Amino acid sequence: MTSAPLSPDAIEQALNAQVVDKEGRSHQFGELVQGRRTAVVFVRHWWCGVCQAYVKQLHKVIPPESLGSTSLIIIGCGGAPPIHNYIDLTQTPFDVYGNPSLDLYRAFGFKSNLGSSKPGQEKEYEKDLGGSWARLWHGLKEGPMRHIGHAGSVGPKAQNGGEVVFEQDGSVSFFHRMEHTADHIELKELAAALGVQAGQADPAEAVACDSGVKV
User: Fold this and answer.
1) pTM for this structure?
2) CA–CA distance, 153 with 155 (Å, rounded to integer)
3) Fewer CB within 10 A of the end CB, N or C, for the chain?
4) Residue 86: which residues within 8 A CB-CB, separation 6 or more?
5) Which residues fall within 8 angstroms of residue 158, CB to CB, at 6 or more apart?
């Protein structure tokens, strides 16, 4: 499933946007994707458990060694302070950046809402995440109960993301916008878009999410 194509102006705006790494250093987004094929996964706020589950399964289904010369990075809509904890929680081997200005999210037209999957239409990566109370408890435990000092830099709760694949020449070959809080592209579909053999995610390792109950 591919969203409507991006305009050249939107791509140019995105390439000029600034992101921050886990140490708070600023980088131009274009420098991260320039000259090499790059997949970019845009997640929601740093305390979003559904995105944490997606990122935790990401390197199981698409191992770094399967990507060859293709790069994969993760960008959230919050600031730098929570990134270290996000990496620790998800155990992701991929580089993680923040876009607290939301310039990238606006350039790509990512949607802002608090909708969730309808019963029976859940994505594969969210099917084993437990019910609303389990998701709420996880959101509280891994968010404000543990890192209350990060509350001001986790990013807006309603901001959704998506997935973008830049080719080496700077063109966009794949683009997907999340329609709601649990609408990341299926990992096997992302693997297919990248031309890699999908691995197997371990549902038992998925973390609970906050979809359905917003914390």
Assistant:
1) 0.88
2) 6
3) N
4) 46, 52, 55, 76, 92, 96
5) 112, 113, 114
Residues 6+ apart with CB under 8 A from 152: none
Label residue 86 exposed, middle or buried (CB < 10 Å: 0-12, 13-18, 19+).
buried
Give the integer Cα–Cα distance in Å for 209 and 136: 7
In the block, residue with structure tokens 């929601």:
44
Query: How far apart (Å, rounded) are the C-alpha atoms in residues 206 and 209?
Result: 9
Which uninterrupted H or E stretch holds 164?
A: strand 162-166
Q: What b/e sequence results for 128-157 when a residue is b if at least 16 CB atoms lie within 10 Å of its CB, and e otherwise?
A: ebbeeeebbbbbeebbeeebeebeebbbeb
- The owner of tokens 């140490």 is 23
Supply the DSSP symbol for 101.
Answer: T
User: What is the amino acid identity at position 211?
Assistant: S
Q: State the Cα angle at 135 between 207 and 140, rounded to 5°.
A: 95
Quick: pLDDT tens for 45-79. 999 989 999 999 999 999 999 999 999 999 999 99
> Of 26-35, 62-71, 193-202, which gets the smallest average pLDDT?
193-202
Tokens representing residue 122 in the block: 């859940």
**How far is Cα 151 from Cα 137, in angstroms, rounded to an integer?**
17
Q: Are 42 and 110 in contact (CB under 8 A)?
A: yes
Give dist(CA 173, CA 48) in Å, integer.
27
